[in-house]
Amino acid sequence: MLDRDGLTEGQFMEQYRANDYERPSVAADMVIFTVTEAEEDNYRKLPEKELRVLLIKRGGHPFLGKWALPGGFVRPNETTEQAAVRELREETGVDNVYLEQLYTFSDIGRDPRTWVMSCSYMALINSSAVQLKAGDDAAGAAWFKVTCRLLREQKELIEDGYVKKLQYELKLSSAHGELSAVVEKSVTLTETSSATSYAVVSNDGLAFDHAKIIALAAERLRGKVNYTDIALHLMPKLFTLTELQQVYEVILDKELLKAAFRRKVADLVTETDHYTENAGHRPSRLYRRNLEEWR
């Protein structure tokens, strides 16, 4: 077949010049969540769980000395998902874990160097398998305790629908200090369309627009924990139901009724013949993920 200029596809490809068009750089940025135990002086008391996110201290410009999500530019011979897997392996030493694409951030000016689009991913890993190793361009790597809570919500009517704005307060803390940001989510809904956007209202210590990537990931995780088995990807191979409930509670940021929770997860887990040992209290039965139910 010939096009409007009388060219075959082969002839068109021979004269095509990709450099005639502006092209962005593409990065894969990783929100890597894990759950760890807070320090507890009383060995008879079950340690509290904390949701943590991995951050990298930037060792070069731009945002020198600021904390950022691990990530890097996608190489010419790989997909964005392959780049995310590579970055995850390089930063934590693990692979073959839960990974899902979050969103593509393409705001103009999000990176002061050039036009950079970020294809962001969320990974969930068991902290016991992690070996942190900051990349060559980083000054350090650390786990930060993360909380993301709704500050305020308002709804504004427009001609054929409404705009809902939700502001979230993001707090991250570790031995390296405290970081914070306020992220606003705007949802515009009309009779014929819907649109969602995120904006950083204030930011203290985080590089680029990574505050809104973390906020989006926390919101995604919190939403999916209610109707999927996503929380089980944060657990070790064997765990107690109390430990699993703690993980649900730290993600949802609220306490759950024990009986209702156990009914909720009954089909997601399978009991084993193993029990806890040296826990400072009566041994508890250990469970594992129900792979049959997953299939």
List key phrases describing it.
295 residues, alpha+beta, 20% helix
Question: How is the topology of this model organized?
Answer:
Blueprint: H1 9-15, E1 25-37, E2 49-58, E3 67-68, E4 71-73, H2 80-92, E5 98-105, E6 116-124, E7 138-158, E8 161-174, E9 177-190, E10 194-204, H3 210-224, H4 241-252, H5 258-264, E11 269-275, E12 285-289, H6 291-294
Parallel strand pairs: 1-6
Antiparallel strand pairs: 1-2, 1-4, 2-3, 2-7, 5-6, 7-8, 8-9, 9-10, 11-12
Task: Please explain how this structure is put together.
The chain is an alpha+beta fold. It is built from six helices and twelve strands. The strands form two sheets. Strands 1, 2, 3, 4, 5, 6, 7, 8, 9 and 10 form a ten-stranded mixed β-sheet that branches. The protein has a two-stranded antiparallel sheet with strand order 11-12. Strand 7 and strand 8 (161-174) form a beta hairpin. The relative contact order is 0.14.
- Secondary structure tally, helices: 6
What is the N-to-C order of secondary-structure elements (H for helix, E for strand)?
A: HEEEEHEEEEEEHHHEEH
For the residues shown, what is the average pLDDT?
Answer: 91
Gap between N and C termini, in Å? 46 Å
**Poorly predicted residue ranges:** none
Provide the β-strand percentage band.
35-45%
Question: Rg to the nearest angstrom?
Answer: 23 Å
Overall form: globular
Structural class: alpha+beta
Helicity, as a percent range = 10-25%
- Sheet having the most strands: 10 strands, mixed
Query: What is the number of beta strands?
Result: 12
